[in-house]
Amino acid sequence: MGHHKDEDFKDCPVYTTSNGCPVMNPQASQRVGENGPLLLQDFHLIDLLAHFDRERIPERVVHAKGAGAYGEFEVTDDITDLTSADMFNKVGKKTKALARFSTVGGEKGSADSARDPRGFSVKFYTEEGNYDWVFNNTPIFFLRDPAKFPVFIHTQKRHPQTNLKDASMFWDYLSNNQESIHQVMHLFSDRGTPYSYRHMNGYSGHTYKFTKPDGTFHYVQIHLKSDQGNKTFTNDQANEMASANPDHHTQDLFEAIANGDFPSWTVYVQVMTPEQAEKFKYSIFDLTKTWSQREYPLRRFGKFTLNRNPENYFAEIEQAAFAPSHLVPGVEPSADPVLQSRLFSYPDTHRHRLGVNYQQIPANRPLHAFNPFQRDGQMAIENYGANPNYQSSFRPITYAKVVPHEAHEKWVGTATNFAFRVNDGDYEQANDLWNVLGRTEGAQKNFVHNVSVHLCAARKEVREKTYGMFDKVNKDLGEKIRTETEKNVPNSGKVESVSARL
Ligand code: HEM
């Protein structure tokens, strides 16, 4: 596999307890006589067991199953007219990066080939701090009000009573919250089961802002297109792979890199001026919509390559902490409410999952962090010595030069609980996607099949409501799904989900 070689171990140090005391025989516990009880003084044994008892940290609440690797970003085309970000300021400039790919709904040991969106996270170690892309392999998402996220996720995971995945709960949510339809169209096409992490694209989904110190800014969306091409499993192939090799994506990525077959992505930016955004057909802060590439063409600016496997999965990948709020000068979040909530949620979950000093873990440590105002806390490794922990008059701290930042958008309004309504516009891009599928032999047929084998296990009223949702995308599509799903209900040999009978 090209990773550890035997000679790496020839200078192995002497095995010790955690406090460094050399141990002669790690397999001999101290006891009274040969058959007597153990001794509490046997620090080696107690040290070993107590540490083992604490090996697990919480898995990510979503995106728990993943794989990652190191790589680099190279600027291929100039975008200094859009952003002052240091890592993009020169063609040819390279920045080191760490990537993690993941499924969303399954637990840490679940199958890589499951039908699910895929996470596409990258951390860039730039001269001006860590800049994270916490993207998915789809350009849109299921919702546009973040208050729906936790409950939406509950419906895609396990039922609280049966602890089973539950088709009724799954489709009940989606058919009651039909702004999800565009993402559902992606998820149930074969794009919902990518062949590998190397063969899929990445998308910011959200609108971000690229900014310049002169106060100008543009709205942007970022796209990473796989240089390996897009390759997907059919539903049957994905199911077969889930049992033949549940870690297929993980293995595929590791082996490709170990064999020197480095995966890469060409990186593009889609750009809108504030004036264009005002006139855009949909809100640019609506995560369920894409921007037409005809009207807002992709501008190439970089190449992203993965070229090194981690040495230690837990240290470097499990402990990696990505957040849309890890930004650098020249990049800002937009007012997209889902993005705004994510700015809070990720560092918050990292403090829970990894601890308050999660930024000090080597995989997360920025090149030049210096913040002596943040002190102490569990696992404070870098605690900034005698540097002042306040704005001292005696030992002044250097601050960034003030960047003239003119107000960008101006927000006015009354504080209100605003509930987005689903409207006809929500089905337009879903219909466009249905037509796009029509251009690939068999893709529409697979879509109908993929929905029907899943939906057939839902209770009747949920199935009916879901047919109604697909009808609104396209009458023909709705009809096909109804016919094939109902055929599968009696014939599939599957029972309706357990909750359907509770
Ligand atoms: C992971 C929350 C929407 C992409 C996570 C995690 C949380 C979370 C709590 C676990 C992070 C960890 O433990 O390290 C949310 C909330 C959302 C939302 C509250 C909406 C309100 C999205 C969207 C995208 C996305 C729209 C993509 C555009 C990801 C990715 C990961 C992730 C890629 C895995 C990060 C990794 O590899 O460690 N999300 N998420 N999420 N989320 Fe979201």
UniProtKB/TrEMBL annotation:
Residues 16-398 form the Catalase core domain. Keywords: Alkaloid metabolism, Heme, Hydrogen peroxide, Iron, Metal-binding, Oxidoreductase, Peroxidase. Its cofactor is heme. Residues 481-502 are annotated as: Disordered. SMART domains: Catalase. InterPro entries: Catalase, Catalase_AS, Catalase_clade1/3, Catalase_core, Catalase_haem_BS, Catalase_immune_responsive, Catalase_sf. This is Catalase. The lineage of its organism: Eukaryota, Fungi, Dikarya, Ascomycota, Pezizomycotina.
